[in-house]
Each structure stands twice: as structure tokens, then as C-alpha cells.
Amino acid sequence: MSGVRLRAMTAADLPAVLRLERRLFPEDAWSEQMLRGELADQPRTRHYVVAEDDGAIIGYAGLAAAGGQADVQTIAVAPERQGQGVGAALLTELLDEAGRRGAEAVFLEVRADNDRARRLYERFGFHRVGLRRRYYQPSGVDAIVMRRLPDGRPPVGFGPEGGRDR
Ligand SMILES: CC(C)(COP(=O)(O)OP(=O)(O)OC[C@H]1O[C@@H](n2cnc3c(N)ncnc32)[C@H](O)[C@@H]1OP(=O)(O)O)[C@@H](O)C(=O)NCCC(=O)NCCS
């Protein structure tokens, strides 16, 4: 992480961000138009950041926040820079922003086959609260819905995950 810094994403970052987006999410990459739309809502309901090292963008993440609820929209780290804490730094920034905006809960969706991302979220206090079957297309992979309460406390409920969606 030495030398890595986080800063707000701007439209000037879009070419580099889109290159990473297409590498990391080859099946369902966001379009430039979608990302522009997200940035256009900053700072009202959105907070997007990039991680930069020596002028190169090595990761990015975005939060949507409205009405006391926040959603992790995306989080991504260049393959050659994964496993160095950049994802954790990006997620920390999104959760800090959710706190600054007074969000009572933060939600996200993660592919059921994305173990690495799920581990990261669990480490940060996210718990499974739902399942969207065959949410990702064309692969047909399920989405797991996860939620984090303000101090990372587990939800009240039944079963090992506290959730009751099954
Ligand atoms: C999910 C993702 C964002 C995580 O980013 P990352 O930068 O690799 O995350 P971190 O480095 O903070 O943590 C990942 C692992 O590295 C380890 N790690 C953290 N800092 C480290 C360091 N300095 N040195 C070595 N390992 C480290 C962590 O313990 C963690 O281990 P684990 O996965 O076995 O639990 C990244 O893998 C990614 O972009 N994946 C593809 C896109 C994607 O799936 N996004 C999520 C969509 S929901």
C-alpha cells in the first residue's frame, strides 16, 4: 500500500477506469454512459473514488447513498495489485462516507462464486441477508445480498448467518 492514495473520481479518470472495468468484469462491464451517469450524481447521492499509485489508477469504488441507506455500487482492484490491501482501503473509504452521510445500513450484492470479495465483505462486518437467484446474466450465477449495520454488529435473526431468506 505504500505510495497508494485515494482521491475522488472525476470524468477525466473514465478511460482508465473503463479499461480496468472491462478487464475485471468481462461478462457485465459497465458502459461509459453508466459510469458518467453515476459521476453526474456526485456528490448528491454518489461517492466514487480511485486508488492511484504513481499517477496510475489501480482501483476504484463507488457508493450510492440516499434516505438513510447506502449501497456499495462497485469495487475493483487491478489483478496485479490485488492482495495488497487496496480493496480494504477502498471499502474503508466507502464505509466512512456512508457513516458521514448518516446511513443506517450499507447493502451490496456479490456473485455467489466470488469468494475473495465475500471474504473481504465478511471481514468488514457484512452479513448475508438475501439471495437473488440467477441475478447475473448470461452466466445465471446467483447474487448474495449482504448488509452491514453501522458498527458492524450482526443482524438479529436465526441461524448461523442471522438471515432468513431461504
Ligand atoms: C474483491 C477485490 C476488490 C478485493 O481487492 P484486494 O485489493 O485484493 O483486497 P485486499 O488486498 O484488501 O484483501 C484481499 C486479500 O489480501 C490480503 N491482504 C491484504 N493486505 C495485504 C498485504 N498488504 N499483503 C498481502 N496480502 C494482503 C487480505 O488478507 C485478503 O486475504 P483473503 O482474500 O484471503 O481474505 C478484488 O479482488 C477485485 O477487484 N476483484 C475483481 C472484481 C470484483 O470481484 N469486485 C467485487 C465485486 S462484488
State the main characteristics.
166 residues; disordered C terminus; 7 strands; Aminopeptidase; 7-stranded mixed β-sheet; alpha+beta; single chain; 4 helices; binds coenzyme A
What does this structure look like?
The protein has a seven-stranded mixed beta sheet with strand order 1-2-3-4-5-7-6, with helices on both faces. It folds into two domains: 1-103, Gcn5-related N-acetyltransferase (GNAT) (Aminopeptidase), CATH 3.40.630; 105-166, 3-Layer(aba) Sandwich (Aminopeptidase), CATH 3.40.630.30. 27% of the residues lie in helices and 35% in strands. The protein is globular. The chain has 166 residues and is an alpha+beta fold. Coenzyme A binds next to strand 4, helix 3 and helix 4.
